Amino acid sequence: MFQRSIDSITTTPPLGPGFAGERHKAALVVAPGDFPATDPFFLMADDHVTGEGQFGEAHPHAGLETVTFMLHGTMEDAGGRLVEGDVEWMTAGNGIVHSENAQVSAGMRLFQLWLVLPERERNMTPRVQILRRDEMPVHRGDGFEATIYSGCSAGIVAPAKNAVPVTLIDIRLEAGAEFEQALPSSYNGFVVVIAGEIEAGTGATVLTVDQVGWTSPLTADRDSAMRLKAGKDGARVLLYAGEPQKISVVAQGPFIAGSKDELAGYYAAYRQGKFPNAGTMRPV
């Protein structure tokens, strides 16, 4: 199996002012603006809240999927409650409104990823999946525990339904432990270090907290894998990898479209009240 390397590294910038007042700070883990390089991932924000209370206002999305990973704390809105380790996988499709009356706990931290939908599914019917950490399959081995939210690991398949084929795994490693994840050669991917330090890929590239290591699609169609090894204090890593869509998109505000006309259609449909509320779609 061909061993992947880390081809580029970015560092998450310092936290800056967020949209929810002084108690909210945020930074971009994946910045928008170079979609050919990050495809199918459009952006990913790291949100921190120091005090409990309201978190933003209800707002729309269309033409994309949002993947909200609760790292710490809780968030509750009209559709229910998310706790540490839960993931909300929301396919906005042709339009949805979410975060209705959202309330969060003190110390809340989450990652929210935006995924670009395939052209044929950009205007699909919206859906919401809640992936509870306690219900996710786990791949355990010598010194590691990998919780699989999407895709598969060592033949263990996660329950998430994907419009874009995506692997999402939360990997916890003891000191010096190694973990290897098979990935299709066509996948673009990145690892984010949440705690500790790792060596990643064939070059044993060192990545520390707040660093993002990218592994690019391979030119040859072959089986591939990404190898991770924890440093002396162990590590926690999130691995995201997905199939590039290789399409041109137009983004504005909370919408991603294939053209300016399609974008205008999303705004018109939202103003006309045609978007359903995500809270009504959450499974119990």
TrEMBL record:
One of its GO terms (molecular function) is quercetin 2,3-dioxygenase activity. Keywords: Oxidoreductase. InterPro entries: Pirin, Pirin_C_dom, Pirin_N_dom, RmlC-like_jellyroll, RmlC_Cupin_sf. Pfam families: Pirin (PF02678), Pirin_C (PF05726). Its EC number is 1.13.11.24. It is an enzyme of class 1 (oxidoreductase). Residues 56-115 form the Pirin N-terminal domain. Residues 169-275 form the Pirin C-terminal domain. The keyword Nucleus does not apply. Belongs to the pirin family. This is Redox-sensitive bicupin YhaK (Pirin superfamily). It comes from Phyllobacterium ifriqiyense.
